[in-house]
């Protein structure tokens, strides 16, 4: 290549005074600014826009990370004159540098899914294989870690180069979390949001530490079951809607008889004849005295099983067991559900459960008020001044009847002699004890 052609090819990269990145794609995460021989001219302007970071690699080592703003890059290179001087040395510059631009915006709608069914253990259906899929969002949080651990020297790095590894990591953690959560299959649909947030918090620190990426969102779009399990659920829902097959059959027969009776053709006559024959047989048996055949047994009682959710977790219980738990913890939140219902209900909304719950124990009666404490007097006597009870003041007067005893209570304007107070008057105080003979 001639000297002039070489200059024309590389002059655009070498003499640029502004280093910037205008991204018009939706999947580019890292882009390296093209510089000839990785040489950056002195006093070049670096422009980092919102939603971007710039990482400056100086002579093979990460030197600095630039946040949004405008910067001047000072290097050991001379400016344009140094470029021409270096031509004589085959453009072997003494200073090498790279500028990597990173997009810090969120990369949304990154699809994920389980390539193979995930095996989980369900308390009601046993071992069940499920499939799940949804979307997640990510962004660069630690640019130095992302550059060192993931990008390397790649000059154009897109989401497709990292999402494969992230999806495999997500699916493995999803399977482990499902097994530990022990959420029943019937309740998975009601736990998409909470389960997705739990999984995001669990896998987020791993993404940040290993890849420098932040998992900003994790959404579960759907969890599907095998066809056999779905058929079993459909059958259970159908039975819940019918509630009682015997009553349903009788209703169907009654409707058929009504429709046939309204038909003026032979069908109505046949039905009427059949009903008449049946009544005639019953009357004949009654008149002949022959014992009639015993009536058929009543339909089997409803098992009255409910899915219960309360303080001790979730389980399927008989209605009496549900009522017993509610009676023991009336202040807690108790919800129940049966196949065929649109959603969970509070126990008080279901008559079959509410009438079995024992009434609450009556509140204990309050104890009587405590008696008023014995009043205290401010007493001044031969043994000093102190707060004393009426009994203590009397004892002091008896012990020293000739001494000066003063008393005072709150609300009085001043001290009073104890002899002027009713409770301490002389006639209310017993005489002193006689001196014991020696």
Describe the fold and architecture.
The chain has 4 domains: 3-103; 107-225, Tetrahydropterin Synthase, Chain A (2-Layer Sandwich), CATH 3.30.479.30; 305-354, no CATH class; 381-428, no CATH class. Helices cover 34% and strands 26% of the residues. It has helices at residues 3-14, 80-87, 143-151, 160-181, 192-211, 227-242, 245-261, 266-288, 319-328, 351-354, 390-399; strands at residues 18-19, 28-32, 44-48, 52-58, 61-66, 69-73, 97-103, 107-113, 118-122, 126-140, 156-158, 213-224, 305-310, 313-318, 335-337, 345-346, 376-381, 384-389, 406-408, 416-417. The chain has 438 residues and is of the alpha+beta class. A hairpin with a 7-residue loop joins strand 15 (335-337) and strand 16. The strands form 5 sheets. A 5-stranded antiparallel sheet has the order 5-4-7-2-11. Strands 8, 9, 10 and 12 form a 4-stranded antiparallel sheet that branches. Strands 14-13-15-16 form a 4-stranded antiparallel sheet. Helix 3 (143-151) packs across helix 5, helix 4 crosses helix 5 (192-211) and helix 7 crosses helix 8.
In short:
With 438 residues, the protein is α+β, with helices and mostly antiparallel strands. It is 34% helix and 26% strand.
Distance between the ends: 142 Å
Average of the residue pLDDT scores: 76
Class computed from helices, strands and strand pairing: alpha+beta
Number of distinct helices? 11
As for the CATH topology of the largest domain, it is Tetrahydropterin Synthase, Chain A
Low-confidence stretches: 11-15, 77-95
CATH architecture of the largest domain: 2-Layer Sandwich
CATH class value of the largest domain: Alpha Beta
The CATH homologous superfamily of the largest domain corresponds to: Band 7 domain
Strands of the widest sheet, in order across it, are 5-4-7-2-11
Please report the total strand number as a whole number: 20
- Give the radius of gyration: 46 Å
């Amino acid at each position: 290549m001639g000297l002039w052609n070489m200059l024309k090819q590389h002059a655009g990269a070498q003499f640029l005074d502004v280093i910037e990145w205008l991204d018009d794609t939706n999947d580019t995460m890292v882009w390296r600014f093209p510089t000839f021989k990785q040489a950056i001219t002195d006093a070049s302007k670096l422009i980092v826009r919102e939603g971007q970071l710039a990482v400056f690699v100086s002579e093979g080592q990460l030197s600095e990370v630039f946040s949004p703003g405008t910067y001047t890059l000072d290097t050991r290179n001379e400016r344009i004159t140094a470029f021409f001087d270096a031509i004589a040395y085959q453009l072997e510059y003494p200073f090498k540098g790279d500028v990597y631009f990173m997009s810090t915006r969120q990369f949304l709608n990154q699809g994920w899914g389980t390539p193979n069914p995930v095996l989980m253990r369900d308390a009601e259906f046993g071992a069940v294989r499920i499939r799940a899929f949804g979307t997640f969002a990510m962004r660069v949080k630690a640019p130095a870690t992302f550059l060192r651990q993931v990008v390397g020297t790649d000059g154009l790095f897109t989401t497709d180069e990292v999402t494969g590894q992230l999806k495999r990591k997500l699916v493995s953690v999803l399977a482990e979390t499902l097994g530990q959560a022990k959420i029943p299959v019937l309740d998975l649909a009601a736990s998409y949001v909470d389960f997705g947030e739990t999984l995001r918090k669990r896998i987020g620190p791993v993404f940040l530490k290993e890849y420098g990426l932040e998992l900003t969102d994790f959404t579960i779009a759907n969890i599907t079951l095998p066809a056999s399990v779905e058929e079993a659920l459909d059958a259970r829902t159908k039975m819940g809607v019918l509630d009682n097959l015997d009553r349903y059959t009788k209703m169907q027969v009654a409707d058929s008889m009504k429709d046939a009776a309204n038909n003026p053709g032979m069908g109505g006559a046949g039905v009427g004849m059949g009903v008449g024959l049946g009544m005639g047989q019953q009357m004949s048996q009654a008149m002949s005295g022959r014992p009639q055949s015993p009536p058929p047994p009543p339909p089997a009682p409803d098992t009255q099983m409910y899915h219960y959710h309360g303080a001790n977790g979730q389980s399927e219980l008989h209605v009496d067991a549900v009522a017993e738990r509610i009676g023991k913890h009336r202040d807690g939140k108790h919800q129940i559900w049966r196949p065929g219902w649109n959603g969970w209900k509070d126990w008080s909304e279901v008559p079959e459960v509410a009438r079995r719950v024992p009434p609450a124990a009556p509140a204990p009666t309050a104890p009587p008020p405590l008696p008023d404490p014995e009043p205290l007097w401010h007493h001044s006597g031969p043994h000093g001044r102190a707060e004393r009870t009426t009994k203590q003041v009397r004892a002091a007067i008896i012990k020293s009847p000739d001494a000066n005893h003063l008393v005072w209570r709150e609300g009085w304007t001043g001290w009073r002699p104890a002899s002027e107070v009713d409770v301490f008057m002389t006639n209310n105080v017993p005489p002193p004890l006689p001196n014991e003979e020696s």
